[in-house]
Amino acid sequence: MLPVDQLLLIAIILLSTTLYVTSWLPTEITALGTIVALMATGLLEPGDALSGFSSTATITVGAMFILSAGLMRTGALEMITLYLGRFAQGSARRLLLLLALVEIPVSAFMNNTPVVVMMIPVVVSLCRQYNLRPSKFLLPVSYFAVLGGTVTLLGTSTNILVSDLYHKAGGSGLGLFDFTALGLVYAAVGGGFLVLFGHRLLPNDSPLATLTHLHTHATYLTEMVVAAESKVNGRQVTAVFEQIALHSRSHTPLRRHRRLHSGEPRPPQPPPASVTLLEVLRDGQRYQAEPLQKLILQPADILLVSGPPKDLLLLQQTHQLSLATVFEDTLKAGNLDLKEQVMEAVIMPGSEIVGNSLKQLQLHSRFGVKIMGIQHQGSQQMQGLRDQRLIVGDVLLLQGETVNLRTAAASCRMLLVEGVEESLIRKTKNTTALLIMGLVVALATFTEIPIVTLSLAGAMTLMLTRCLRVDEAAASLEVPTLMLLAGTIPIGLAMESTGLVQTLVDSLVSVVGLSNPHLFLVVFYILTALLTELLSNNAVAVLLTPVALSLAATLAIDPMPLLVAVIFGASASFMTPFGYQTNAIVMGPGGYKFVDYLRIGLPLQLLMVLIASSHIPVLWPL
Questions:
Q1: Spatial separation of the C-alpha atoms in residues 581 and 394, rounded to whole Å
Q2: 63, 363, 565, 598: least CB-packed within 10 angstroms?
Q3: Would you list the DSSP string of 58-102?
Q4: Res 524 pLDDT > 70
């Protein structure tokens, strides 16, 4: 039977982990609740429970967010990617290769979440330019950033966190390039797999905002449901709609011209010619282009249609279609300004609207922006929309004037998925920002100055040189990530003080035995990688780093192989959208479903297991 303090700690870990994964409460509240629980139960003294706030890992990660924001605000990466994109010449594989060549080295020195945020509109713009589908590229964009983050200490907050925990345990900490050799192998093999096979393994879908760009005359887009009594029930799509989006290279919709024979019964009045059918959703399957034309409409089919409000209302009423209640009020508002645009907005980490329902947002009254649709965990939602709770990575389809859309996105921390040609700002400062980042890296490489000192100095210099305003620097701090660190770091301390770490090590030793350290390494890496697919990578690092150090002491081996296994395993989130927030961020814009992550992520994960198990013992002998 475990001691009471260990049982209490396990209960706190399980509860906090459940809340982090399910997002029932905001991350900030869960982190604070964890800290309070550790103090209230007497597992930690207040000073130790609050140590996450003063941890050099937390401060360094915060400074790296500011450094990354400086590069984003000056548009340095966007310019490089758009320039290289010209060499793709419409080839999907060539574009993937160019994205890998840009992202992997950049993510080695920038926090990879801002890199992905910056790349989404760039990739969407390039896809529109070359008539490619974003679904073929956005998930590789996340994976390239993850792989690049394993190359240096600065690549991801997980690396910084493990180094800090190692230093606090009496170790030397980790240098900037201590695990670069393995990181380069990881990036080369994983990146090569994505370039060669990623295009084949990923879906060929168009996100909602992309579909609306095919029709410049469409003023509104919404979803209608075919009911049992609907007049379109049982009829072929081409017999109902005169315009069907084909998504061909010419972007020309199908116009149906059909004569009725004298003896043929007259069908119900067709929808107005200004109404276009974009796609049909049936049981989670999306029908677009040519397969859409042959489809026979059935009850519960969801029709994605675009057109003027009065014509959409006419379609709904004359064909007895159901309209999602979340759209009904704004659709009946009628005359919409033709200058209004339709854009996707991805909910980012730290957004104030996470956890809120759609009816609580009031975007129309606050910003003059209408909610036209939502994608939740890769699926378009129709039932219970008003009460749908939003999470990071959800996509809202918004309509409004450009200035209102940008204001709403900035206020609610959402990423507008659009072309980036007009989004580059402070282009005259991009050289300055690059020099500041380069200086931070150079000093970290050739001097003994701590990373935390250099990153804070770099963040301060960005603001002094006006590459970044103070308010922009404050806004760039991802509060949920920082609070997650502050809330999980003390859990590691509690695991050691209660003896839970040693209990876990003893259990692992009893299962695997002491005779084969290589087997321990492989098991430990796989355990880390599997936990990362379900939990936050930082939470996994906090839980397993103390175990790695204690296990190394028990086996009488150098702790570096096991620490490297934690670093790389905690970054190996490829099979689910949950473990790494960049995977969740691209889910909506790419139109991905859970199975898409498994289809490409499972072989990539197996490949990385082979690389780790074969290379770590060679680079860091056991």
A1: 12
A2: 598
A3: HHHHHHHHHHHHHHHHTTHHHHHHHHHHTTTTT-HHHHHHHHHHH
A4: yes
At residue 405's C-alpha, the angle toward residues 407 and 76, to 5°, is 75
| Domains by residue range for the chain, with CATH | 4-206+431-597+604-619 (no CATH), 220-335 (3.30.70.1450)
C-alpha to C-alpha distance for 527 and 212, rounded to whole angstroms: 44
Q: Would you call 425 helix, strand, or coil by DSSP?
A: coil
pLDDT tens sequence across 58-92: 999 999 889 888 887 777 666 666 666 677 777 88
Cα distances (Å, whole numbers) of residue 189 to 100, 105, 192, 230, 610:
12, 14, 5, 53, 11
- The sign of the dihedral angle between the CA atoms of 97, 101, 104, 106 is negative
Nearest CA to 147 among 94, 92, 199, 108? Answer: 108
Both structure tokens of 615: 């290379």
Our measurement of the distance from residue 287's CA atom to the centroid of its chain's CA atoms, rounded to an integer in Å, reads 25
For 556-567, how does the pLDDT look when each residue is reduced to its tens digit (9 = 90+)?
Answer: 889 999 999 999
Contact 103, 435 (CB under 8 A): no
Separation of alpha carbons 498 and 43, rounded Å: 7
Q: What angle do CA 196, 589, 102 make, to 5 degrees?
A: 45
Residue 221, pLDDT score: 61
Structure tokens belonging to residue 174:
């980790």
Determine contact, residues 49/12, Cβ cutoff 8 Å.
no
Other Cβ atoms closer than 10 A to 512 = 16
Pick the most confident of 67-81, 188-202, 293-307, 420-434: 188-202
SS3 assignment for 287-334: ECHHHHHCCECCCCCEEEEECCHHHHHHHHHHCCEEECHHHHHHHHCC
User: What are the tokens at 592?
Assistant: 């991905």
Terminal-residue alpha carbon distance, the chain: 33
Which residue matches tokens 């998930």? 139
Q: Which tens digit of pLDDT belongs to each residue from 166-204?
A: 998 888 889 999 999 999 999 999 999 999 998 889 988
Instruction: Give 358's DSSP letter.
Output: H
Cβ proximity of 580 and 540 under 8 Å:
no
